Amino acid sequence: MKKVSKLSLHRLTVKSLFLAALITAVDQLTKYLAFDALFLTNISLEVSSFLNLVPVWNKGVSFGILSDHGELMPRIITVITLLITFCLLIWLIKAPKGITKISLSLIIGGAVGNIIDRVNHGAVIDFLDFHAFGFHWPAFNIADSAITIGVCFFLYENFVLRNTEK
Fold first, then answer.
1. Domain extent listing, the chain
2. How big is the CA angle at 90 (ends 28 and 20), to the nearest 5 degrees?
3. Is 68 a catalytic residue?
4. Is 36 a catalytic site residue?
5. Pick the catalytic residue: 27, 117, 129, 144?
């Protein structure tokens, strides 16, 4: 593994934190626009043969899991997500590798975007609805996409890159 200076690592940490903040900002901007266009009027828009914009309130976690477990569940999910995000933030600051920092910044940026929704609305705003060839994916948002990409990078680092370093 290539040695990285402390200054380079610090700069990479700052850039990673900026990336997390940028993802949160883009996520919140798109949700603001979606809320205005879709949720206030309760309409769906067909953008293409494979993409609709739809108003979906997600009170659970991924794909609506745990959404029908009472009024307290959104608060419990918010607290757990805050704790996990805080731990990921500490990990990002201490991580020695760039790909780890990027992975964590994507996950943190997405998590913060969804936490903001839970605090402001009691649920997450989902609005992207993809479907093709008879397959239909549950509605999601930019934050969910960032989290998914971050997890994919993390898995790639830990299962592909790690095996090539040996």
1. 6-165
2. 25
3. no
4. no
5. 144
**Burial readout 105-115 (b: 16 or more C-beta within 10 A, e: otherwise):** bbbbbbbbbbb
Strands 124-132 and 51-58 turn out to be antiparallel
Task: Choose, from 27, 117, 126, 129, the residue flagged as catalytic.
Answer: 126
pLDDT at 164 over 90: no
**What confidence tens digit (pLDDT) does each residue in 128-139 have?**
999 999 899 899
pTM of the full predicted structure?
Answer: 0.89
pLDDT of residue 74: 73
| Distance from C-alpha of 76 to C-alpha of 109, rounded to nearest angstrom | 20
**Residue 126 tokens, joined:** 């989902």
What is the sign, positive or negative, of the torsion defined by CA atoms of 142, 148, 154, 159?
negative
DSSP 55: E
What DSSP state is assigned to residue 5? Answer: -
Q: Closest by alpha carbon to 20, among 108, 103, 96, 100? A: 108
